[in-house]
Design brief:
alpha/beta; Rossmann fold; Hypothetical Protein Tm841, Chain: A,domain 3; six-stranded mixed sheet; four-stranded parallel sheet; 10 helices; 37% helix; globular
Length: 292
């Protein structure tokens, strides 16, 4: 292995994939009733129980990964003589990437012969995880770290992340929503459509009436904006709405079926911000796709 690929639990990748491909993960933490938890095993995560608790009003808080945690995490690889490629959650929704930069600055002076490359994916969930998968593919093809880093940096502008939520309350409560106007609530079944913008921030760009139309709108955006789907792993993340995810898969496969569709349950930290019932779609478009 020419370098170590690292990411965080927001990447939402299946535990079996991480183990098979040697990707190491630093955890985000969440707090319920003053007790702290982390979720390194996404396949062992009881999403139904977690999102049921949210629907019943459980108060869940999260925190960024601090610089010292990154120092400890990175240093274990540097001490073994490995260079590092770290795939991070968006700086547009968390301060964690800046904390990783601070750790890099501290460690670079201690390990001047080692390379530490940090990728701010401007995404979360599979909008981050797909970058880790691309890094694995590039590494296994024999590309050196510097080239892999450059290729991932170029791809950042091409990742389209679009989703719908049952209730904007969760994003508003945790400050993850940028420049959103208030919309009429659930009594009229108005469903917001949101995306990650060019700065990796979450913005509400449209709304439709009804859940089915919201899901169809995700598929419409895919059909309009996807680039070379036959070469892509497309991602779907859901917060305890598996039937909706299956319906979205049907719609994606009708016109422009991708090479593969990876479907995951939202891990608890990102899931606590978007809320139960969230359905998200991640795919690659052209270099201007984040503006659309």
């Amino acid at each position: 292995m020419s370098f170590s690929i690292l990411t965080d639990t927001s990447a939402n990748l299946p535990s079996a994939y991480l183990l098979e491909h040697g990707v190491s993960v630093i955890p985000y933490h969440y707090i319920i009733c003053d007790k702290q938890y982390s979720c390194l095993d996404t396949e062992g995560f009881d999403g139904k129980k977690f999102y049921k608790a949210m629907r019943l009003g459980a108060d869940i808080s999260t925190s960024a990964i601090n610089p010292q945690s990154y120092v400890d995490f990175f240093e274990s690889f540097l001490m073994s003589g490995n260079d590092i490629l770290f795939i991070s959650m968006s700086s547009g929704i968390s301060s964690s990437f800046r904390c990783a930069q601070m750790a890099k600055e501290e460690l670079q002076s201690r390990y001047p012969d080692r390379m530490i490359c940090l990728v701010d994916t401007l995404g979360a969930s599979l909008g981050e995880g797909i970058f880790a998968m691309m890094a694995v593919e590039y590494r296994d093809a024999g590309y050196p770290l510097k080239k892999v880093y450059r290729m991932l940096e170029e791809k950042k502008a091409c990742m389209y992340q679009v989703f719908t939520v049952d209730d904007l309350m969760y994003l508003k409560k945790t400050g993850r929503l940028t420049g959103s106007a208030a919309i009429i609530g659930n009594m009229l079944q108005v469903k917001p459509l949101l995306k990650g913008n060019e700065n990796g921030e979450i913005v509400n760009f449209s709304k439709v009436i009804g859940r089915k139309k919201a899901i169809a709108s995700l598929a419409q955006r895919y059909n309009m904006l996807v680039d070379k789907p036959e070469e892509q792993v497309v991602g779907i993340a859901h917060a305890d709405c598996e039937d909706d995810a299956k319906y979205l898969i049907e719609l994606l496969n009708k016109k422009k079926p991708p090479k593969e569709i990876l479907t995951v349950m939202y891990e608890p930290v990102t899931g606590s911000h978007v809320g139960p019932g969230t359905l998200a779609l991640f795919f690659l478009g052209d270099s201007r796709v984040r503006y659309r």
